[in-house]
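Suppose a colleague, Dr. K., hands you the sequence of a protein chain of 519 amino acids and asks what its three-dimensional shape might be. Before reaching for any lab equipment, you can write down a predicted structure in token form. Begin with the sequence itself:
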Amino acid sequence: MGERPQERLWALWEACGVGEDWRSRAIRSDEASAWFDDQLDAVVALMRVADVWEQRNPAGSAVQFASELLSGSVPIDTISRVGVRPGGVEVLTPAQAMGRRWQVVVLAGLQDGAWPNMRLRDRILRADLLADVGAGRTVIGDDGREELIDSTRAARRAVLDDEYRLFVAALTRSSLFVHAGAVRSEDAAPSAFFDLVARLAGTPRENGVVPIDTVDAPLSLPGHIADLRARAASPDDPVDAELAATLLALMAREGIASAQPERWLGAGGTPTTDEEFQGEVRLSPSQFERALACPLYWFLSTIGADGPSNAAASLGTLVHALAEENPHGSAQELTEALEARIEELGYNLDTWAGRHSQRRAHAIVDNLASYIVGVPGRVEVEQMVEAQVEGVTIRGRMDRMEHVDEGVRVTDLKTGKSGYSAKTVPDNPQLAAYQMALLASGQKVAGARIALLGDKKPKTFDQKPLEGEELHKWYEEVRKVADAARGPYFQATPSEEACRYCSFDRLCPARERGRKVVE
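The predicted structure, expressed as tokens, is then:
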């Protein structure tokens, strides 16, 4: 092979046939774009290295280049002085700028919540507390008394002092001019530092506020598309609006996701009507419990608006799988089954957190084994039940259906250590839904049970068989949930139980935090 490195590299690149695909993926502006952009940069860098190697080895072949590259003996610098940075603008943090001076300094990003950043540091391992204890430092409160170092108020004061020192250090890097910049928009506001600079500089104000300078869109694909969308929606210049719409259509046709109207929030009109849902209402027992606690939370979680499951949910899934595979498993059998599959949880056993999580998983499985030993009779695992109850189809999968003398008992396995008690379980909607579905299916039901496996030892809490007035009360709850589930409006009903693990407080109209968003 006497060909030159660049010729062979280009031939290999053409043979791969990925160039056009990587290019389109790199400019698509989605989550994977950065990876494809990096790969293209790596290919260009390799071509550059080959170019420099050819200049230094006029008679060298592609085989020699590949051998030296693999052995690490190819220098990656070039024959030109590309490592010397030409004069330009240096972008530095305040700490990086220490000890240096410029005539002109620009303080960018003086945003509320960003600079000063009042977030408390070292809140996990509390390195700040250890340092203060070692140095014997305390603080004096507003009332003149000495305060504990572990005071949130004192900690925030210390953070603010640090932010002021960085701000003063940044200001004093300039020997002539200082430019301070901030953004004011619907979700951003200038910080107190910006206001301080403007006041000391004597910046004119209108109604007590520094006037806003209109700025162009960011020099990025999202910024460009946002600018085009604003122009297309503006009635001031029809010609400019038509041109912007045309450009958006061209980018959408080329596969740029952010230019496609169906991906724009609020661009599809109002998706709901005043007509209620007329079809069949289908609920699982857990959905029945959520809908009874808060119809809005039930609706948002049912349509998939909830976030991904966490590590605790993954452990729960694995424990339920082990319980299904070993309905009468001994402690040894369940432990061996856990060891065979514990890698699925992704615990890093080189860390304390990983080893702690592994020990907890073993403790839960030990509790499961202890519970199973106490139920020696016939057991059906992961059985489906589906039945019509008061016009609602209740369909769910039972962890364990245990056959006892009085009939069948539904047992729901929980891997947590709290959340259920002898006081709350008798009124648990999920267990009641299982009981009603089994009764509607013609089963003789001996009650329901929560088996709590996450504490030091297993705990069980029972719900009595539903009958008489108690059963009719639950039928009324089913009818109530059915009416709420048909919409088109879903009411937020806050309570300690419903809001405890809710992930939608940012848009909940019943909470102060969410009310600011939706109103």
